[in-house]
Amino acid sequence: MNTYSEQLNKLDHQLNALGFCESLIFWDAATLAPENSVDGRASTLVSLSELYYNLLINENTKELLKALEENKNDLDEVGLAKYKFYKEMYDKIACVPVDEYSAFKGLQSKASKAWEEAKEADDFAIFEPYLQKVINFQRKYVTYRNLGGHPYNTLLEDFERGLTVDVADKFFEGLREVIVPLVKEIQTKGKVIDSPFAGVTFPSKGQKEFSDQILDKLGFNKDSGIIAESVHPFTMNITRDDVRITTAYHEDYALSSIYSTIHECGHGLYEQNISKDLGFSKIATGTTMGIHESQSRIYENNIGRSEAFWTTYFDLLKNIFPEQLKDASAETCYLASNDVKASLIRIEADELTYSLHIMVRYEIEKGIFEGKYEAKDLPQVWNDLYTEYLGVTPPSDATGVLQDVHWSEGLFGYFPSYALGSAYACQFEAAMNKVFDFNQAILSDDLSQINEWLKENIHKYGSTKTPEEIILAATGEDFDPAYFTNYLKDKYSKIYDL
Ligand code: ZN
Question: How many Å apart are CA 166 and CA 288, to the nearest integer?
Answer without folding.
Answer: 19
